[in-house]
Description:
about 20% strand, 12 strands, alpha/beta
Amino acid sequence: MLEPGLVLVVDDEQPIVxxxxxxxxxxxxxxxxxxxxxxxxxxxxxxxxxxxxxxxMLPGIDGLEVCRRLRQFSDAHVIMLTAxxxxxxxxxxxxxxxxxxxxxxxxxxELVARVRAHLRRAHGQVLGDGADxxxxxxxxxxxxxxxxxxxxxxEPVPLTPLEFELLTTLxxxxxxxxxxxxxxxQVWGGDFYGDDHVVDVHVSNLRRKxxxxxxxxxxxxxxxxxxxxxxxxxx
Length: 235
């Protein structure tokens, strides 16, 4: 039996930390809380949470910088909390390594559902989720699902857990076009509450890490009006 997942809740408003913690605890999660970025990073290093619920607006080190630093040592799934409604802020959060975002005011039950979905994927990655451990090769791209590693041209490509899952989903059927809705279903899960714009942002992040030579055809191709596909070998 798996140990209950550990969630780190970071918000400068203690009532929000308390509210979210109560709902998560009632749902069976273990919870730690922090009110600033420095404390959040200390707890993340020491306790290695599975999921981090991270407020964007924090005193001192803000949520974006916490997320950047967190990505240097942690594979935790990050759900960004933001009181800002500007789409640019949400995109920036996803670009620096967040996996998901929730806009304040939010439903605690919806947030718990999102945490549960991310934790299920985190445990699925650890347990292999039934995936074939054999490496997938597409030109000079190698995806080793068993080791959870990606290289291109022999050089390691550091991906977040969600980016890795997105890439392996596309690589399972090279040349096949996946719609945004299909990618949301397979990568984010059927209980994802957000919009399909998160797919575009994560595909953009993935391309930025994979496409190092602008003169070469892109590995991840856009099929206008439909979705995305991974280029086949030699095409």
